[in-house]
Amino acid sequence: MSVLIKGGRIVTAADDYVGDIFIEDGKVSLIGGSLDVRADKEIDAGGKYVIPGAIDPHTHMEMPFGGTVSCDDFTSGTTSAAFGGTTAIVDFCLQEPGQSLPDALATWHEKIERAKPLVDVGFHLAVTDLKEGGTLEDLARAPDEGVTSYKLFMAYKGAIMVDDETLFRTMQVASETGALIMVHAENGDAIDVLVKEALAEGKTEPKWHAATRPPITEGEATNRAIQLARVAGAPLYVVHVSCDEAVQPIARARTSDWQAWGETCTQYLFIDETALDQPDFEGAKYVYTPPPRPKQNQEILWHALATDVLSVVSTDHCPFNWDGQKTLGKDDFSKIPNGGPGIENRLHMLHHFGVREGRLSLRRFVELVSTNPARFFGLYPRKGTIAVGSDADIVVFDPEKRHTISAQTHHSNIDYNLYEGTEVVGAPDVVLVRGQVVVENDELVGEPGTGQFVKRARFGEELR
Ligand code: URP
Ligand code: ZN
Ligand code: ZN
């Protein structure tokens, strides 16, 4: 199957020009001013942006967490991704404490066999236990399977939190194997004390989720991870940076040329701590971790994105239905499953409020949602750019298309949307995964199973 995308404004992290793209066998085979080729399918991209498919390096599909399981499997979650212009995800394969690392990876491979994805999928290995289940040897072997990033949770005490020894040993392995270390940076011990104190005082409503996880606990853990990674000689990527206290140590690392980088997520740019105050338990919709922060952090995050202090915007898509899942914590905020949706609306929100409102250039937008995730996670230049030889993961994005964000219009299984009712201008028109059209004019035309597991390159290496 060949495809010709004609006359679009081709925007990558490096370039911005008008041209045609010819796709054969799932790859970009020609790019030119006005190509004289015949194709099985022609897409008129006049007046539209043609951008590399977005990559979401932070998702949690069908993940057991907080006594329940996130409500998107790989089919529904990646369908939602595709409608939002995301053509590849890297999901967290979570080792159950006590489980071996190969078993954890096998469990995640079974998930994509059972609920086949629409977009391409890679896995990070989220290490929770190196004492009973996991071994350093198995950890060292994961990159050979194309799993080239290790994730550690410095929070969620009593569940999936690791101690500093496990964190540091994993960093040492990463420095040997060429894997990238990812951390959820919060001081889980301190937070555990604050949560227990709040509950003992009868403070049970959703707003106490934020009050018991103050920004300094994120800042402290971010700095600790950065310094430990320096000792171990491992590259570090801090996930879901939410506040100034965590931006500051990353800014210091960037100016010091240490091997440490950070991402934020869409929700931290738009939702602040007051969302948790909504009556009738509606605030539980915004119980994700780190929590929504005081509003002044939002401009700090935008500025950090624009100035390359933060390198990626992901979604941390971890959806739990309000009805039946969030309500598990009706009488105790600590029992509300932590996580929120967002995979479908990252480009809508960042394009409208970032590019249209002048906070980000168009090329920086592409870099934040596609090129940098590809570079960090061993997918570049196969993905994350539009170049001859790259996978034809492409989004024809109409910058004038109006879209209302809502649980009624999204394709995730979840029963609410964090940005409910937001009107944006700019939305994907056509989405291709390795040359196959999966979404066209708001219709699903691709099949589950179009997406494949991708073995990723080691940190700093290219994937061809
Ligand atoms: O609340 C969140 N973010 N849930 C998913 C797990 C994590 O911490 O990323
Ligand atoms: Zn996290
Ligand atoms: Zn997460």
User: In total, how many beta strands?
Assistant: 19
Please, how many helices? 12
Whole-number average pLDDT?
A: 98
Question: How big a fraction of the residues is strand?
Answer: 15-25%
What CATH architecture of one domain would you give?
Alpha-Beta Barrel
Corresponding CATH superfamily of one domain: Metal-dependent hydrolases
Q: Structural class, from helix and strand content? A: alpha/beta
Which ligands appear in the coordinates? N-(aminocarbonyl)-beta-alanine, zinc ion
- Cα gyration radius (Å): 21 Å
State the CATH topology of one domain: TIM Barrel
As a percent range, the share of helical residues equals 25-40%
The CATH C-level class name of one domain: Alpha Beta
| Principal-axes shape call | globular
**Strand count, sense and closure of the main sheet?**
9 strands, mixed
Query: pLDDT under 50 segments (min length 5)?
Result: none
Distance linking N and C termini? 21 Å
